[in-house]
Automatic annotation (TrEMBL):
Catalytic activity: orotidine 5'-phosphate + H(+) = UMP + CO2
Active-site annotation: D61, K63, D66
UniProt-listed Gene3D superfamilies: Aldolase class I
Pfam families attached to this UniProt entry: OMPdecase (PF00215)
Organism of derivation: Anaerosporomusa subterranea
Official protein name in the record: Orotidine 5'-phosphate decarboxylase
Sections of the chain in a coiled coil: none
Pathway noted in the entry: Pyrimidine metabolism; UMP biosynthesis via de novo pathway; UMP from orotate: step 2/2
SMART domains assigned to the protein according to its UniProt record, in alphabetical order: OMPdecase
EC number(s) stated in the UniProt entry for this protein: 4.1.1.23
Record has Coiled coil as a keyword: no
GO BP of this protein: 'de novo' pyrimidine nucleobase biosynthetic process; 'de novo' UMP biosynthetic process
The organism's taxonomic lineage, starting at the top: Bacteria, Bacillati, Bacillota, Negativicutes, Acetonemataceae
Keywords: Decarboxylase, Lyase, Pyrimidine biosynthesis
Amino acid sequence: MSRSADIIVALDVTSIADVKRLVEELGDSVNTYKVGMELFYSAGPEAVHMVRSAGKNVFLDLKLHDIPNTVAQGAKALTSLGADFISIHATGGSNMMRETARIVGTAAASQGLTRPKLLAITVLTSIGQTEWQELRFPGDIGDQVVHLAKLAQQAGIDGVVASPQEAGNIRRACGDNFLIVTPGVRPAGSAINDQSRIATPSGAVKAGANYLVIGRPITASANPRAATEAIRQEMEACS
Ligand SMILES: O=C(O)c1cc(=O)[nH]c(=O)n1[C@@H]1O[C@H](COP(=O)(O)O)[C@@H](O)[C@H]1O
């Protein structure tokens, strides 16, 4: 099913100066940015403040993965930074996801903040069939992604991060109100890099994604704004 979807640009850079340059250059063509490990470990919370002060939404993608108490308390600390989305690993288990949802809800309410949306990472989009088998995980990647999405939903998580190749089945299994965020998006002809389970922007939208996380096809482009606008046009043409 096609729906209106938005772009999240992955700020996989190391300095506040790079963030500032990209956010200024992309202007009103982008509403939401992702601050991931590379940027957060290099520049710290200032990266989140910088993006928020530009009036943009922040997906704080630190992919928390630990025992329930540790992840819940870590996510509570990230909630105080004012992130709009926070990621945790679904493979941390139901108890971890449930406890994180509970603690984040309480923390946001007590600080008068909007509760950030919690997103569960399913199976990384860089993992293909060969690596899946090397890890000795049984069964089909797509089936496992849908299974993890259902567990996340039952644990009170708002949505998942998955490949666009799985978005259609997640949508059918988890319904219209569950968020589906898809990295692994590659416009036709662009470099695949280290991604494996990929699709085009229009493919991701048609499969039912709410947000497309896009990094290098935009940030490594000679003209990031033109690259973003071309992706937006492709998305709008099919929604
Ligand atoms: O959580 C993510 O955003 C994520 C999950 C996943 O399974 N695959 C994945 O690529 N990502 C992130 O999405 C972004 C993709 O960047 P590009 O491959 O440059 O478009 C990176 O910042 C990754 O950290």
